[in-house]
Specification:
Helices cover 47% and strands 18% of the residues. The chain has six helices and five strands, in the order E-H-E-H-H-E-H-E-H-H-E. The chain has a five-stranded parallel beta sheet, sandwiched between helices.
Length: 153
């Protein structure tokens, strides 16, 4: 059975770096890449509704493909709330993929520091808001397993 990895972590926690290092053969849906493709910016609140539509369409197309071909899939986004993760978990289960959370436990100060080193920065207040809304993933949500990755400087 293939896995649908659901990345969980605030901006700057290292989600994409983790995926590139540890899941290089998995298909990856990245909201950051969609933002850059659609507007050339790491964050523009005016296009966030379009990003959500594009991500939903990609998930809807790639989850059945991944299940059919036995290919692992990664949803590389912040996914900080249970409400945001619920439809992704449900979609995985409907198609026979095993939903796995990868939770990057990163201190806010470290994420803000990393963000300042990026050529394309996320506004600091956006990172603060994600940190305030963060709900760590649980098995009760429907994940088959949860990988906790403590992030240190």
């Amino acid at each position: 059975m293939a896995d649908l990895y659901v990345m969980v972590g605030i901006p700057g926690s290292g989600k994409t770096t983790y995926v590139r290092r540890h899941l290089p053969c998995a298909l990856r849906i990245s909201l950051d890449d969609l933002r850059l493709m659609m507007c050339g910016q790491p964050f523009d609140p005016r296009i966030e509704p379009a990003i959500a539509v594009a991500a939903e369409a990609l998930l809807g197309a790639l989850v059945p493909y991944a299940a059919r071909t036995g290919t692992d899939l990664v949803f590389d986004a912040t996914n900080v709330t249970r409400a945001r993760r619920a439809p992704v978990i449900e979609l995985a289960r409907q198609h026979g993929l095993s939903p796995v959370a990868i939770f990057l436990e990163c201190p806010l100060a470290l994420a803000q520091h990393r963000n300042r080193q990026r050529p394309e920065q996320v506004p600091p207040d956006v990172i603060d808001r994600f940190a305030q809304r963060l709900e760590p993933p649980t098995l009760e949500e429907g994940f088959a397993r949860i990988l906790r990755v403590p992030v240190q400087p």
